[in-house]
Specification:
By secondary structure, the protein is an alpha+beta fold. The protein is 16% helix and 38% strand. The strands form four sheets. A six-stranded antiparallel beta barrel has the order 3-4-5-8-7-6. It has a six-stranded antiparallel beta barrel with strand order 9-10-11-14-13-12. Strands 15, 16, 17, 18, 19 and 20 form a six-stranded mixed beta sheet that branches.
């Protein structure tokens, strides 16, 4: 696997001699020609230096499964140009996987997973840009300062600093028991899972696993994860995607091949279902604050949608906009009372470009603009 390390900062120290005013030199003072520069002194990197160096190699992982509903996101990190390490529960039951950096989004597939030791490896369909992280060869010690990097709650890349507060911890989760974990007081949230915990040298000492209600977080040790990842990198064990029909197919047709399209379709599916069934609170929850402002308040939103039914929804094209945003070009048909329809229309055909934003771990609708002469009245 590719490797990259953070070089120390060299500091050249020169000894300077100041000439005296006396005609005679002090007896013990060496002649100027005897004074030579000292050897370079290598300064160890700081945790801040290391975070800056490795951060481009931390990846957001967006997964859809066979289960209905909105899938949350997780984190991972590059261990080679096309390999991303994470924890097993982030990719459990994955139907599709999207790997997102600050510059691009591409598809991935699981090429190694050990649910009992909570480690997984994902291979990207093409190389990703970014720093390649390395696993530490020595375990951290209690009180060592560490940094946790990841995408908490789907927000932009964040770093939280803390200390190792315990080693070889055993923790009971809902469906499994894990032992040998690193305990830290560094703050983590949903979405951090799978991200790296690094030391001052920029080495990965653990993979973030979870936090407890007591404010403590836990990580899978590098000593466990490193061996597994190295083995899968040398001999991939491809995990086929979950085999099930597209859970959104009853309301959303996906034409886009973009890696984010399946996850975006989940949001549109839930939004349409809420409108069609009159579960307006569910649809309202899928709007960002910026988009809600377009309706003034919830009551105005309900009034505008109260007679609407949405059908024939097609996700034509998805594109990455920035680190936390996409655009989605869609077509659909709406039927509504004439007094609530555009220009008195009771059936309208729309062509819109939505702005979608990752907010609190899920894709939400942030804005909308008409494309072409949308909307037009349905043809008879």
């Amino acid at each position: 696997m590719g490797r990259a390390r953070l070089a120390g900062v060299g500091l050249m120290v020169l000894s300077l001699t100041v000439a005296g005013c006396s005609v005679l030199d002090p007896p013990d003072q060496p002649a100027p020609s005897d004074t030579a520069p000292s050897a370079p002194v290598e300064q160890p990197p700081t945790l801040r230096d290391s975070v800056a160096f490795v951060s481009s190699g931390v990846v957001r992982i967006e997964v859809t499964t066979c289960e209905p509903g909105l899938p949350p996101s997780g984190s991972g990190f590059l261990v080679d140009e096309d390999l991303v390490a994470t924890v097993a529960h982030v990719v459990e039951g994955a139907r599709t996987i999207a790997l997102r950096t600050s510059d691009e989004v591409i598809r991935g597939e699981v090429v190694g997973v050990d649910p009992d030791r909570e480690v997984a490896l994902v291979r990207a369909v093409r190389p990703l840009g970014g720093s390649i992280l390395v696993f530490a060869t020595e375990s951290p010690e209690v009180t060592d300062e560490v940094a946790v990097l990841g995408y908490p709650l789907g927000q932009p890349l964040a770093t939280n600093v803390g200390a190792v507060s315990g080693l070889d911890r055993r923790v009971e989760f809902e469906s499994q028991s894990l032992s040998g974990l690193i305990q830290t007081d560094a703050s983590v949230n949903p979405g951090n899972s799978g991200g790296p915990m690094i030391n001052a040298a920029g080495e990965v000492v653990g993979l973030v696993e979870a936090k407890t209600g007591e404010g403590l977080a836990y990580a899978v040790p590098a000593g466990v994860a490193g061996d597994l990842v190295e083995g899968w990198a040398a001999a991939p064990v491809v995990e086929p995607p979950a085999d099930c029909p597209d859970p959104t197919a009853d309301l959303v047709t996906i034409e886009s091949k973009h890696a984010d399209a399946p996850a975006l379709a989940r949001t549109f599916h839930a939004f349409i279902e809420g409108i069609n069934l009159g579960y307006y609170e569910d649809s309202w929850a899928l709007l960002t604050g910026r988009r809600r402002a377009a309706y003034s308040d919830f009551e105005s939103f309900v009034e505008a949608q109260s007679t609407s039914t949405i059908t024939d929804f097609v996700l034509e094209k998805a594109s990455m906009k920035d680190e936390t945003s996409d655009t989605a070009d869609v077509r659909f048909t709406s039927r509504q009372a004439a007094e609530l329809g555009p220009d008195g229309q009771t059936c309208s055909q729309w062509h819109l470009r939505y702005t979608m934003r990752m907010d609190s771990g899920y894709w939400r609708i942030d804005g909308a603009e008409n494309l072409e002469a949308s909307p037009v009245e349905c043809a008879e």
